[in-house]
Backbone:
């Protein structure tokens, strides 16, 4: 059993923060010149998102950012991780058409964050590709590397004077695997060749983005955000073991290994060979300053001969370890992972997402009591502390999420916020977990 985080001693400069992403909180999808993203399109495909929910309004953060950032301050946030909506600043995706009003919005967010003494951590891509670029082939088109580099340059030039922490992408694997092979995310394509190209082009775009950010924002600290978690066979059969091994390559290695070690993992590397051009690996593996880790819990893999890759999602054999929404809770796996990542990639780690979802209702007194989230956070933050004591180089922790928000395919039904949002009237109510976390980090 790990230590209670409130009783642990933390490095003085340990960075505590909250995370959000553009499409999940902003709303205002057709306002002030924003162009459509692939998520606007995907949400309108019947059956893709629970209840037919969309990000049209979300948390209305586009209009309420100032009060939201004031609330972050009251919750003792030292850092705020958010993403820029590419189609809000470049409605058609390309640099030839810049939307000044969209850029102004992030100026306001950044200035307000800094006024409150909170560090802005800006992520360039949290899954909302401009639809216009998808219409040109999206990530399966190698031109996307240049489009992304132009977008990165615009952001670095505009905000590099005030933003000192940039991430290129959030969860490379999730939006490529679920966007191009297992249709759980936009654009919802099932095509092995497009998927392989997307993996490679996104890796190249990351490298190009790092180069651009480095030259235009030379004093900024640069990284990228991976979702890494153990992949275990649902039951120990040779078929399930093979499925777990390939899923592990996709989930945990297909992006960090080329970006940080200069090679693809073996099975994916072989499949990607036809799309590799001379010099590509050097373009992908550019020096970075930190590794962002999003972590929730392990995945259970099973063989699925019908699946495009022969693997599918299995069930945890230990159902009692699942949280309210069925995600497996293994804090000790998180502790061990932090140690493994430190020795494998030798970079400072920021935990850029961790948290748990659920239903969270407002009670008769207008309060939202979420003791199970406090338990979850205690376990995981405690496990992180244990890993740090054993030598893991962890420099900060951002909880997912600041606000209940649009949770992709689950719509508004799965609440991850430390702050409850009533989507009828946009009222914000900090949950008991917010009070617990604010005290911890205050
Ligand atoms: C991660 C995403 C984030 C949120 C959490 C619950 O995969 O990065 O946007 O949906 O899961």
Residues:
């Amino acid at each position: 059993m790990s230590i209670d985080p409130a009783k642990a001693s933390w490095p003085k400069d340990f960075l505590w923060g909250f995370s959000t992403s553009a499409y999940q909180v902003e709303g205002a999808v057709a306002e002030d010149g924003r162009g459509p993203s692939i998520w606007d399109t995907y949400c309108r495909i019947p059956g893709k998102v629970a209840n037919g929910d969309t990000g049209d309004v979300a948390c209305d953060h586009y209009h309420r950012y100032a009060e939201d950032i004031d609330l972050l301050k009251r919750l003792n946030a030292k850092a705020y991780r958010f993403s820029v909506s590419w189609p809000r600043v470049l409605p058609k995706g390309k640099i030839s058409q810049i939307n000044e009003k969209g850029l102004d919005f992030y100026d306001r967010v950044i200035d307000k964050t800094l006024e409150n003494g909170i560090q802005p951590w800006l992520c360039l891509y949290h899954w909302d590709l401009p639809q216009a670029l998808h219409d040109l082939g999206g990530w399966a088109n190698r031109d996307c590397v240049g489009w992304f580099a132009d977008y990165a340059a615009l952001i670095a030039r505009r905000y590099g004077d005030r933003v000192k922490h940039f991430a290129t992408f959030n969860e490379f694997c999730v939006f490529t695997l679920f966007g191009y092979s297992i249709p759980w995310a936009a654009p919802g394509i099932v095509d092995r060749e497009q998927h392989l190209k997307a993996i490679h082009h996104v890796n190249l775009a990351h490298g190009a983005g790092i180069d651009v950010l480095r030259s235009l924002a030379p004093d900024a600290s640069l990284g990228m955000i991976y979702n890494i978690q153990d992949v275990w066979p649902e039951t120990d059969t040779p078929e399930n073991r093979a499925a777990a091994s390939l899923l592990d390559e996709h989930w945990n290695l297909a992006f960090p290994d080329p970006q940080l070690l200069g090679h693809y993992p073996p099975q994916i590397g072989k499949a990607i060979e036809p799309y590799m051009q001379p010099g590509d690996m050097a373009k992908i593996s550019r020096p970075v300053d930190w590794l962002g880790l999003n972590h929730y819990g392990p995945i259970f893999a099973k063989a699925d001969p019908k699946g495009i890759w022969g693997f599918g999602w299995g069930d945890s054999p230990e159902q009692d370890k699942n949280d309210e929404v069925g995600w497996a809770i293994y804090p000790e796996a998180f502790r061990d992972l932090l140690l493994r990542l430190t020795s494998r990639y030798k970079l400072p780690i920021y935990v850029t997402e961790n948290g748990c979802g659920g239903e969270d209702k407002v009670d008769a007194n207008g309060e939202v009591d979420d003791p199970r989230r406090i338990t979850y956070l205690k376990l995981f933050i405690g496990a992180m502390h244990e890993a740090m004591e054993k030598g893991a180089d962890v420099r900060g922790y951002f909880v997912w999420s600041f606000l209940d928000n649009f949770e992709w395919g689950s719509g508004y039904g799965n609440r991850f916020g430390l702050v409850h949002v009533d989507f009828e009237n946009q009222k914000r109510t900090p949950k008991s977990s917010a009070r617990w976390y604010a005290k911890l980090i205050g």
